[in-house]
Design a protein that fits this description.
The protein folds into two domains: 164 residues, Reverse transcriptase/Diguanylate cyclase domain (Alpha-Beta Plaits, 2-Layer Sandwich), CATH 3.30.70.270; 253 residues, TIM Barrel, CATH 3.20.20. It is 44% helix and 21% strand. The chain contains 17 helices and 17 strands. It has an eight-stranded mixed barrel, surrounded by four helices. Strands 2-3-1-6-7 form a five-stranded mixed sheet, sandwiched between helices. Helix 2 crosses helix 3. The protein is globular. The structure holds ligand C2E and magnesium ion (2 copies). One magnesium ion (MG) binds next to strand 13.
């Protein structure tokens, strides 16, 4: 029996809150940006980042994201003019469009008013919490009126604002390197997801003890029609900052599981590792999405490992713990990626239900030349084994490193030495050739 094809709107599924309001705001921005351009008028976009929103949510007993956001939007509304529009782009970001301004300083004044409005403790059902918001500002005509580029610039300014005492930052052209890179790509990415233009490549992992390939990591690839290949970290960054990371994760999971299902019918059953971004981890629907994809393609959960970077686990430990426990409940395995670069404490490692530590390739690269790196790799392997976890070394490029890792008792290796990440068909052929029928 053929596996079902994913629903036609598979790539379109969005998990962010207030989707309708958000779409309406983006249409409003579109219209007003065109007006500003035609009339040489003035417009501003403010991007408000609600830092510590998790603390606030912890105090709420209702549907957390929706309640938190409505409290925040209620606070912001009186700080704005009637013609201004606002909507949540995600659980942690609110976008405000200020059309037809008379003077650029009005945008800064509005930002300061918004910051003040959110400065007072927010109380709900007996608990109180204080947000530490910051605001990125971009103005037209100082910046081009292209809506996608405006949002990217506001996002760059928002990140800079997070480091400033005053809590806001007006985008300057010299901040633009990143925005230029992103220019227009977010719109293209949404289209690419819908048009199935993205691809997943697979990089095999080998068991060091006996040299048998046992798994593969799925790595996202996007060849942009005019800009060429875009780095996966950029793709993920765009998807996170524009609120479409949920759709992207859904797409990748389904693509990988479709392949797993097809290989399974040919008797080939590698374990597949899929990367999850930090933002996906706060999406409360994630475990259902995973479960649904496993069901759709009839892939045993034990054949799937979800990779979470160490840095995305720090922050709200209780919330991370709750999410990892729910994910683990679906039957998949969990891995901590880029281990050694973050700050996870031993206490977390003991509590979190993980199965694998992936040693960052930075340390693997220096294994034979840098004593410090050697000690770190040694410690991570020992740490993994003390907690009954697998240790995986990534970025293995030469034979001497592989031999040393094997001698050190590392469980698995992945890297160019074995194979580059391969397109789906080539990967299947590689696996068939090396492993054959199970
Ligand atoms: P990662 O998960 O740590 O993936 C390993 C990266 O190391 C990959 O880069 C891989 O191509 C590269 N690599 C593998 N072997 C070697 C080697 O021997 N030498 C060197 N120098 N590099 C090697 P890539 O594909 O560019 O991916 C970069 C990062 O983007 C990934 O790091 C992962 O964090 C993220 N990423 C990739 N695909 C996805 C995805 O579907 N979803 C999410 N959320 N993130 C993804
Ligand atoms: Mg990874
Ligand atoms: Mg890694």
């Amino acid at each position: 029996m053929n596996p079902p094809t994913p629903p036609a709107d598979a790539g379109l599924r969005a998990q962010s809150p207030g989707e309708g309001a958000r779409d309406e705001l983006l249409r409003f921005l579109d219209r007003e940006a065109a007006v500003a351009q035609a009339t040489q008028g003035r417009l501003a976009v403010l991007l408000v980042e609600l830092r510590r929103v998790d603390r606030l949510q912890a105090l709420l007993k209702g549907p957390p994201a929706a309640v938190t956001l409505s409290l925040v939007l209620e606070r912001l509304r009186p700080a704005l003019r009637p013609e201004d529009r606002l909507a949540a782009l995600s659980e942690e970001q609110v976008c405000i469009v200020l059309p037809r301004l008379a003077h650029p300083t009005q945008a800064v004044l509005a930002a300061v008013k918004c910051l003040r409005a959110l400065d007072r403790p927010i109380a709900h059902e007996g608990g109180t919490a204080v947000l530490r918001p910051c605001v990125g500002i971009v103005t037209v005509p100082e910046h081009s009126p292209d809506p996608a580029s405006l949002l990217m610039a506001a996002d760059v300014a928002r990140r800079i604002a997070g480091t400033r005492e005053e809590g806001y930052h007006v985008f300057q052209s010299e901040d633009s390197v990143e925005a230029e890179v992103y220019h227009g790509l977010d719109i293209d990415l949404q289209r690419a997801i819908r048009a199935n233009e993205l691809e997943v490549h697979y990089q095999p992992q080998l068991r060091l003890a006996d040299g048998v390939p046992v798994a593969a990591e799925a790595l996202l690839r996007w060849r942009h029609p005019t800009s060429g290949p875009i780095a996966p970290s950029t793709v993920v960054g765009i998807a996170e900052s524009t609120g479409i990371i949920g759709s992207l994760t859904f797409w990748v999971l389904n693509a990988v599981l479709r392949n797993a299902s097809q290989m399974g019918r040919e008797g080939l059953r590698p374990r597949f590792s899929v990367n999850l971004s930090a933002r996906t981890l706060v999406d409360s629907e994630l475990p259902e999405i995973v479960e649904q994809a496993l069901g759709t393609w009839s892939v045993p959960p034990a054949q799937v490992t979800l990779e979470i970077t160490e840095s995305s686990m720090v922050g709200d430990a209780d919330r991370t713990m709750a999410m990892l426990t729910r994910l683990k409940g679906t039957g998949v395995e969990l891995s901590i990626d880029d281990f050694g670069t973050g700050y996870s404490s031993l206490a977390y490692l003991k509590r979190f239900p993980v199965d694998e530590l992936k040693i960052d390739r930075l340390f693997v690269a220096g294994l034979l030349t840098d004593r410090g790196d050697h000690q770190i790799v040694r410690s991570v392997i020992d740490l993994a084994h003390n907690f009954d976890l697998r240790a995986v070394a990534e970025g293995v490029e030469d034979e001497a490193v592989r031999a040393e890792l094997k001698a050190m008792g590392c469980d698995l290796m992945q890297g160019f030495l074995l194979s580059r990440p391969l397109p789906e068909r080539e990967f299947r052929a590689w696996w068939q050739d090396r492993v054959g029928r199970a």
